Amino acid sequence: MKLRTTSVVALVLLGAGLVPAPAPAAPAPASSASSASAASAASAAKVTTTDGCVASFPEPGTYTKVKICYTLFRPGTATSKKPVPMLLHSHGWGGSRTTDPTQLAAYLDAGYGVLSFDQRGFGESGGQAHIEDPSLEGRDVRTLVDLVSRLTWVMQDGRGDPRLGAVGGSYGGGYQFVGAFEELRIKGKPIFDALAPEITWNSLPGSLAPNDVVRTEWAAALSAAALPSNALPSSIYSALVEGVATGQWPDGTGPSGVDLDRELGRNGPAWHVSQGRRLDIPVLFGQGTTDGLFPLEQGLTNWRTALTPAARKRSIFVGYNGGHVLPSVLPQGVNVTSDPCSTTLAGGDFRRLSIRFFDEQLKGRRTGLGGYGRLHLATADSTCVTIATPGASRVKAIAGDVVSTTGVGVPLTYEIAPGPIKVAGTPYLTASVTAPGTDSRAFYGLAVGTSALDAHLVQNNVLPLREPVPVDGVSRRIALPSVAVDVPAGQKLFLLVTPISDTFAAMGSRVPGVITLTGTRVHLPVVP
Fold first, then answer.
1. DSSP state string for 477-505
2. Where are the transmembrane segments (predicted)?
């Protein structure tokens, strides 16, 4: 089955966009660049690098074990008498492991061993990528943990229990959760002692198709990035192509015959939480406030549901302007890359913050790091807002009806409140919905401007409302994207509603019509 829409074909070129985008770092001064490079080279010379592969679980329907290949970095200070903690590291979707020690010099210099590995279906590893299936990629991570537990120069907390952390973003954050949760399921404890996942997901179906409306650009990019190495199983590839081409999230009744909720529903923290499991270990979350694939609410949901209350008190959440970002043209968004919260907490970028976090959690070293038990979110103005909970706390009513054409038309804005007002967390709407058409869709978000004419979308995200059948005055709770925004005096906070969105290209209503919200109330996480 081939993609036949121009917008989707163009997205083949975006496959590399799924490789993790790290938290933005401030550029080094020109005068220090050469000395930093020399220092990295000198440090790398003290590192022992070993390449290898382990045999892991066979692909479904086969009997041959799949090789998972890795590069192991041993810092010069690590010996059996002075063992060091270990960090697992892996790549984003479509990528491969790190083999150059200079790229991991910050962790190695800080006294950590690092094992970087090719995930199943990528790099030199065999098999196909099942997008962090617990029974496949979960076993791969467990196999690597077993390898680390036999290294005499790695700190061990018990038999089969190395002192272990993990780093990586996007798909490289997904392995962290699947590995920790699978160890918890099998052994009763996560084995990992601390995690630092960036820009990753809580639920794959919830990320790729919120309310069953496909994020066209990203579903296409996911499948396109898998083409060069034939990484995806044909069933999942065909289903993603179907979703992009038809505008319907595959439920088993379409051309592919695949139910993606069934195929991908277990591949993330949401499923483990539904089974009653929560991680009782400290986690440093890094999530993109302008991320259009795994948006801020995916990380906030992990914070709220995937950890025990005790673990949250020992964890830190950082939202930065970055992640999986594409231009937000319609509706018009912002173009900003910054990480003010890592700077506030650690005096540097997210990697520096992660090292201080691991020093405290894996080495028991007091570094003076603060911010535990709190969420630290970047605004588009590159300020940092700290909150204790992302929940909505204040209600604002919108006068009159909120109306959107469907299928065609321009974005419309409705005033919520004048500035100054600061909002950080997860807002939502409550309203009575009337939609006379079949499969009506509209997209909602928050916007800021001096008036409706210059209002721009806050941090580039909208979320869809979908009504599969005609409705008349039905009460709904409508999700809005999680945000952090400081609206100054002289500007206003708006509700933005649009019939089309470039992130959800061609995913508007199947039949043109009108969606009307009456009695609309906006529930806002207002910061005092």
1. EEE---EEEEE-TT-EEEEEEES--STTT
2. none
